[in-house]
UniProtKB/TrEMBL annotation:
InterPro entries (alphabetical): OGT (IPR037919), TPR-like_helical_dom_sf (IPR011990), TPR_rpt (IPR019734)
PANTHER family: UDP-N-ACETYLGLUCOSAMINE--PEPTIDE N-ACETYLGLUCOSAMINYLTRANSFERASE 110 KDA SUBUNIT
Record-linked Gene3D superfamilies: Tetratricopeptide repeat domain
Domain of life: Bacteria
Protein known as: Uncharacterized protein
Molecular-function annotations in GO: protein O-acetylglucosaminyltransferase activity
TPR repeats: 35-68, 69-102
Keyword annotations of the record: TPR repeat
Alphabetized Pfam families for the sequence: TPR_12, TPR_8
UniProt GO BP: protein O-linked glycosylation
Length: 164
């Protein structure tokens, strides 16, 4: 089983998405108690813009592996892409509670507050926490922080990219 999982991961990393999907799908069928295959299927589907199956797989991943912060982070991204901001926020907050030192959900929740919820002060707090957890910093997010601090009432035009 570990060998099959590793092979599917290598296929995904090499861009052989169909091969990876087949491998993870087979593992999800033979080992439904494991979250990894479902999480990776969710990632594949989300990247392909197939949000409904992505959410279904990621929800299954967090059901069977409720202590995996990365799965909740991925689920938050998928919910945000579906426009379900309340569920996205909840998923990011769960990831942060599970792994307070895991930087990605702080960034992603910051983006949610910044661009989708219109809460600049909360976004600043989250971006600052993300930067504190990011060794070597992040020049792009540092720029976003400066923009937020200088922003008056003008609309946001910069795009933000989630952290996987």
């Amino acid at each position: 089983m570990q060998r099959a999982f590793d092979e599917a991961c290598r296929a995904l990393a090499a861009g052989r998405t169909e091969e990876a999907e087949r491998g993870f799908r087979a593992l999800a069928r033979s080992h439904p108690e494991l979250g990894g295959p479902h999480a990776n299927l969710g990632l594949i589907y989300r990247r392909a813009g197939k949000l409904d199956p992505a959410v279904a797989e990621l929800e299954q991943a967090v059901r069977v592996s409720p202590a995996q912060a990365a799965y909740f982070n991925q689920l938050g991204i998928a919910y945000r892409q579906q426009g379900d901001f309340a569920k996205a926020r909840s998923a990011y907050e769960r990831a942060m509670a599970l792994a307070p030192g895991y930087a990605a959900p702080y960034l992603n929740l910051g983006i949610l507050h910044d661009l989708y919820l219109g809460d600049g002060p909360r976004a600043l707090e989250l971006y600052d926490r993300y930067l504190a957890l990011s060794p070597g910093g992040d020049a792009t997010v540092t720029k976003w922080v400066a923009e937020l601090k200088n922003r008056k009432s003008s609309p946001v035009t910069a795009s933000r990219k989630e952290k996987e």
